[in-house]
Amino acid sequence: MLSRLRVWAGLAHVLGAARGMAACRGCGVEIQHRAADGVGFLPKERMDAYVEALHRYENREVYDTTPATPEPVLATPSGPDDGSYFAMNPDADASPARVPTMPKLPVCARCHMLRGNRSVSRAAAPTQPLPGNALLVVVADMLDYPNSLHPGLMTLREGGHSVIIAANKADLLPCDLQKERDRIRGWVRKEGAMYGVTHADAVHLISARTGWGLKKLFQTVYERCQSSGAVAGIVGCTSAGKSSIVNSLLKSSTGDEKVTESVWPGTTLAAIPFDLRLRDEQPYLARAKPEGARPGAVRLFDLPGVPRPDHMAGLLDMRELAMISSHKTILPETHIVRLGQSVFFGGLARIDYIEGPPGALFTVCMAPKVTVHVTSTLRADAVHARHAGTDLLCPPVGGPDRMKLLPPLEPLTFDFEATDDRVSQYDLVLGPLGFVSFTCRGNIKIKAYTPQGQGMHLREALLPLAVQQRGRRHGQTFDQRSRS
User: Fold this and answer.
1) 25 and 15 in contact (C-beta within 8 Å)?
2) Antiparallel, parallel or unpaired: β 282-287 and 200-205
3) Of 237, 292, 366, 369, which has the fewest Cβ atoms less than 10 A away?
4) pTM for the full predicted model
5) Ramachandran sector of residue 211 (left: φ over 0; alpha: ψ -120 to 50; beta: rest)
6) What percent of the chain stands above pLDDT 70?
7) Is the pLDDT of residue 266 over 90?
């Protein structure tokens, strides 16, 4: 009985679950082995194998003084449908006697599939409010801002939380961030205030992919939590990059097992605790222990993303989500659009130019795999019906059969006045696809379409000078290359 208690005490320690329940290290949800189609499912065979390995580790460490013998090692998930997730590795290399390390609990089946870039069923995560004096790090996607700030996000405020906005994917913007950092920070504050985030204490431009800006962000988080005794929570909408930020810091500090990150919305399903410290003025992140924060550390939680019912990403599959995600600096592409013309952005969005000067410049900032096609408004419906889901208008992919599964495109009308034909003054955000900037002089009226009219937002231009990066035209067309 004593040995068994030690095993489960060790299990709780490894999991870092203060409540003593087994939780997936990838998404934070409680492990279960009864419902194969439910969240947190782990085959009973794998759970039993892990507990047995942990039991042997406990016995060897406490009672056995003889050299260690090779132990079975759980197979690393290597891909979909290869059977490795349910198998043991019989060919583990023998190693000399050494102090054994505690085995780690395998991730749940859902995390295993997401790490293999496979689609899974959508899962809702409950809202988990933090204590009243918590510091909220609100992560937002710069390419989908301020749509990536959920209007109900501030309901987490139970008693005057402090708020820091972490504007992610800043490295993808085609501008000199060193020179324009202050202007973009002011822009983030202004647009965020219009969307309900009116009390941000600081704005940090960051990149979860490269780690740029994370040092200063987490130094600020640590210092504020240390002085106030508060805990910190990383919050935001789904797919904003919260878990990617945690993984980037984990990789550069302890090398602990990463949490699951994916382009699939709603990867994290429960709060995952960490300890944040400073070592030689460098932020240092480690998995939390159930007995409390380490000496000199503050408790940091990676919280589940807040889903947005009007977000276009919820309509796409894994392949299509990967197509609209950019991992390199975006190259603006400028098109000369005439009155009576329409611009398609894949088969998921369309803009009709219906009133204004004879011609306007549309500067597109989207992932390179999103196709852009200009045609006559009179022919636009026929072009979409025939080519949506094909190479001409993708994503989505799959042709007419795929389009039948998506809601129809529905329009919203936008009116604005442009007073300078040398810089862009307004952007139209098209959800996770990206945004389009408009450059002309006069009163403009456009009609924009997305599935069920989702994700569209007119805002002040983020990159007013991007239109000046245009180069020579594509042959005889009105499309102009970006100067790289």
Assistant:
1) yes
2) unpaired
3) 292
4) 0.78
5) left
6) 78
7) no
Rounded average pLDDT over 85-114: 61
Separation between Cα atoms, residue 287 and residue 272, nearest integer Å: 9
Q: What is the pLDDT of residues 6-24, one digit of tens each?
A: 322 333 333 333 333 478 8
* Dihedral sign from CA coordinates of 30, 218, 169, 256: negative
pLDDT band at 75 (very low <50, low <70, confident <90, very high): very low
User: Whose CA is closest to 446, among 373, 366, 349, 302?
Assistant: 349
Can you tell me the distance from the alpha carbon of 422 to that of 420, in angstroms, rounded to the nearest whole number?
6
pLDDT over 70 (residue 288): yes
Average pLDDT, the chain: 79
DSSP state of 467: G
Q: How many residues comprise the chain?
A: 484
**What does the alpha-carbon distance between residue 195 and residue 211 come to, in Å, rounded to a whole number?**
27
Q: Which residues contact 19 (CB under 8 A, 6 or more apart)?
A: none
Q: Which of 157, 155, 158, 180 is nearest to 167 (CA)?
A: 180
Rg value, the chain, Cα: 25
- Per 3-state DSSP, what percentage of the chain is helix, strand, and coil (rounded to 5)? 25, 30, 45
287 DSSP β-pair partners: 274
Please list, in sequence order, all residues whose beta carbon lies within 8 angstroms of the beta carbon of residue 74, skipping any fewer than 6 positions away.
Answer: 46, 49, 50, 53, 88, 89, 103, 106
